[in-house]
């Protein structure tokens, strides 16, 4: 897994998604126009769910509640908004199918990754052809969790927890998401390895802002499109 992001304009990009318009924003922000001029930006109402919506056109009315978006239509920009959760961008370039997922621990555990891949397959993708990039999120060194959090996970997930101070662990969210991708049949995964919590100059972080008693409204946006 390549952990070296490439900076292009305002967005961080993935080598695995080269040739697909995409990017992960920083504090500088990002818009659909950064990928495709005049293309609509499609967002869902994110609720930390396993639910995925298929996008064929801009929503007619309020967006659906979903934490994954997939599309096979050209000229659409899919967007995922995050502050510490993991944004995942996916593509089967041969089939022309793209996806985006908002993967906090709860959504990842409940199936948003597997469901996003399955929805892409329904549109003609093959898991073996899908490539995925996991964007900036809270790093393991910054993600301290307690016993009640640890209890949500199975014994087989122990490798994603490092022992911390007494009664606490450090959770590897990006590693856990990458494993969920692997279980869904996606073998080529890039982790950008950027810590939203630790890099205050570059990223917004809900967790950091909460700890500091600062406003918590800042978000990154992750974008992917078919030209």
UniProtKB/TrEMBL annotation:
UniProt family annotation: Belongs to the purine nucleoside phosphorylase YfiH/LACC1 family.
Superkingdom as given in the UniProt entry: Bacteria
Keywords: Hydrolase, Metal-binding, Transferase, Zinc
Keyword Ribosomal protein: no
A GO molecular function held by the record: copper ion binding
CDD domains, per the entry: YfiH (cd16833)
Source species taxonomy: Bacteria, Pseudomonadati, Pseudomonadota, Alphaproteobacteria, Sphingomonadales
Protein name according to UniProt: Purine nucleoside phosphorylase
Catalytically driven reaction(s): adenosine + phosphate = alpha-D-ribose 1-phosphate + adenine; S-methyl-5'-thioadenosine + phosphate = 5-(methylsulfanyl)-alpha-D-ribose 1-phosphate + adenine; inosine + phosphate = alpha-D-ribose 1-phosphate + hypoxanthine; adenosine + H2O + H(+) = inosine + NH4(+)
InterPro entries xrefs: Cu_polyphenol_OxRdtase, Cu_polyphenol_OxRdtase_sf, Cytotoxic_necrot_fac-like_cat
Gene3D superfamilies: CNF1/YfiH-like putative cysteine hydrolases
